[in-house]
Amino acid sequence: MLFVIEKKIKSINFIKGVTIVELMISMVLGLLLINSVMTLYLNQRSSYYLSDQAIYVNNDARFISDLIGRDIRAVGDFGCTSAEKLMNVLNNTIFDPGDLRVISAFQRVSDIPNTIPGREVLTALNPVSGTPILMFKGSYGWQTYLDSGMATNTSPIKVKDNELKNFSKGDVVAISNCKQSSIFEVTNVNLNGLSHDAGVFPTAANGNSTGMIHIEPYAKGADIVRLDIIFYVIGNPSDGRPKGLYRISGTQNYAQLITDKLDNWNVKFKLDLNQDMVIDNNLIDINAMSATDWRNISSVYIEAVLRSSKILPNVKNSQRMKYYFNGEEETANDNHFYSSVSFETRLRNFK
């Protein structure tokens, strides 16, 4: 009996545990493994956020390019007639035939004439100081055709009944064929068509000076389009709306947020001074444009900086994004994703 107990005690003495040194080594190795896994996870997470924000920013850049490019090409688009054969009966000179093919740009709201519709909406957006304000005049509304010929040059403009809803009292409209074109304000919309009576009204165009829109009445098939004055501005409203690029309809007094990712931009112009379809001046800044240069614009060059909506995680100050703007390398002042893009659009209707 004593032999059995002694044997069990000796067997127990041979069972050894983990020493403190071995335990510490195991813990260090475990911590190193966990650190490697966490580092890999954080790097992958940062790469995911970077790629994710880059996709959003690049998508917005393409959308801006397409939208502004479309509006630039619509400047002065009134069918197959020229500005010299255009009759404007508006009381307001905002759509003066001599200015219809002009793109304008301003450094501040105070530079914009008070007679231009949409100025109050523009002011409420609180444009970011140092960023240009673009203004276009042209066909930016519903387009259709004359459904039946005019009996006289004062007859209502007849469109299809299901298209009447696309026009409102106070709209500025152009009608054109290959011989002549006219600009007038719609004074009434009913089943007879679009009226254009003479009178002074509290609208963007202040009504019509005469109800006779041209010397000859228009025949069926004439092109009809709604006109507008369009602004593009980087606004920072104080009413809770986000900072970003806004598109303003002057005649409708309405501002629409296009993207909250446009942080800064610059606009330059190329000119065709002698109307020979050859560019004479390359990339003229807004401040260097003369009064006559605005009538000779052949294309618009825009350089923009876009900024992601979300912050990139785990970015040190020394790792902040770098980008090029106005020919110089810039470093971001926060931990957002930044990207600079540029695009050029040629006017479709410059002389």
Structure, explained:
With 351 residues, the chain is of the alpha+beta class. It has helices at 2-13, 20-73, 119-124; strands at 86-88, 103-106, 133-145, 172-176, 181-185, 188-190, 193-195, 223-235, 244-249, 254-259, 262-271, 281-285, 297-311, 322-325, 328-331, 336-346. Strands 1, 2, 3, 4, 5, 8, 9 and 10 form an eight-stranded mixed β-sheet that branches. The chain has a four-stranded antiparallel β-sheet with strand order 12-11-13-16. A hairpin with a 4-residue loop joins strand 9 (244-249) and strand 10 (254-259). The longest helix has 54 residues, at 20-73. The chain is elongated. The termini are far apart. The mean pLDDT is 85.
Which radius of gyration do the C-alpha atoms yield? 33 Å
- Profile the largest sheet: 8 strands, mixed
User: What structural class should be given to the helix and strand makeup?
Assistant: alpha+beta
Q: Based on Cα principal axes, name the global outline.
A: elongated
- Portion of residues within helices: 10-25%
The secondary-structure element order is HHEEHEEEEEEEEEEEEEE
The residue-averaged pLDDT reads 85
Number of strands: 16
Strand content bin: 25-35%
- For the terminal residues, how far apart are their CA atoms? 120 Å
Tally of helical runs: 3
Low-confidence stretches: none
List the helices and strands and how they pair.
Elements: H1 2-13, H2 20-73, E1 86-88, E2 103-106, H3 119-124, E3 133-145, E4 172-176, E5 181-185, E6 188-190, E7 193-195, E8 223-235, E9 244-249, E10 254-259, E11 262-271, E12 281-285, E13 297-311, E14 322-325, E15 328-331, E16 336-346
